[in-house]
Amino acid sequence: MAFWKQFVLSLIVIIAGFAAWVFFVPGAGDTMRDAGIPDSIVSKIAPKAEETADADAPARAQGQRGEGQGQGNRRNGGGRNNTVLVATQAVVQGVVNDRLNAIGTGDAIRSVAVTPQASGTIREILIKSGDRVKAGQVLAKLDSEEQVIARGQADVAVKSAVEKSNLYHNIKSSVSRMDVFDSEIAEQGARLQLQAAELNLARRNITAPIDGIVGIVPVNIGDNVTTSIPIVTLDDRSEILVDYWVPERFANTVSVGQPVEAMSVARPGQVFSGVVEAVDNRIDAASRTLRLRARIDNSSDELRAGMSFSVSMKFPGDKYPAVDPVSVQWDSQGSFVWQVNDDKSRKVRVSIVQRNPDFVLVKADLKDGDVIVTQGLQRVREGGAVRVSADVAATAEVATQ
Fold first, then answer.
1. 3-state secondary structure of 349
2. What are phi and psi for residue 127, nearest 5 degrees?
3. Strand 232-247 to strand 212-214: parallel, antiparallel, or no bridges (unpaired)?
4. Which of 171, 239, 253, 311 pairs with 136 at a CA distance of 20 to 30 A?
5. Which residues pair with 259 in a beta bridge?
6. Proportion of the chain above pLDDT 90, given as a percent
7. CATH T-level topology, domain 99-143+204-315
């Protein structure tokens, strides 16, 4: 087929399709008006379509009572009828950023890895895993024969120095003052040697630095240990410290002493109360989070160091108008909703803050109780008259329950 014939045939098909759309599609005239075509031209092009829309309105109302009636009643002899049938819903107040949930790791309020203060062979272990010990209690002993001998030698040296010093003081007239002074210095040196020997002997006993509960003992009698080998770990878990991280937007909201609630993964459903123990002094540049530390009471000894916790905190939050998600519309300038005031519709620009399944929080010139259109939105116009349908409103209310 020649090109000009294909072109003519395509043009005829397009014109026929446009004519069918104008004649059979309700609201074709409105669409052309929205596209900027003057009413004088629309009334000439689509008068029959608007008459058909009025004639078909009762039939459409049987299937779609709200929106169909609004479409059928909008035209009267080619002119506009300003009354549109709609369903509405009142604006309520919504809150965002009122609760924080984070995952943290617990640690004992005090935890110490006990290491010996001297090297040697373990001669005796006096504790076992799970024991509760007090500060200063002996946990294990190292071999101490050399230290016992050294202390005995120091003790003998002290006695000798004391006798010599006493003798020189009694015969001051026969000895020089320098000899008396030297005897006193020798006595003091001997006493210091005795203290050092007693300290070395005491360090053969490995003692608990804090009150706590004994962990698993990794050494046995006969093991040769040094000052870098832990003998046991002690945990004071009367309270648990939980470290967790929060987004930086909460940096100016959290404070020391603020209440928190924590729930352990190991004990689901059981909530433990605590307070914020410490707030870090800087934001982590990589994750944009702030480190917090909470202190949780564990007097019942149900929690252990190393447990994971789900931590939650409550805040006053930021309050915004909450609207039905279906009420939010979009145009070239952004999002908006239709507000009904004195049976008139008004376009209110909104900025979406948070979108939820049941409502949308927006930043807009709206307050609690303002009426927003949720159904029949296609026919609503700026400043147009609207009428709220009791049937449609009841249907919307049932759907939201």
1. strand
2. -135, 165
3. antiparallel
4. 239
5. 275
6. 40
7. OB fold (Dihydrolipoamide Acetyltransferase, E2P) (2.40.50)
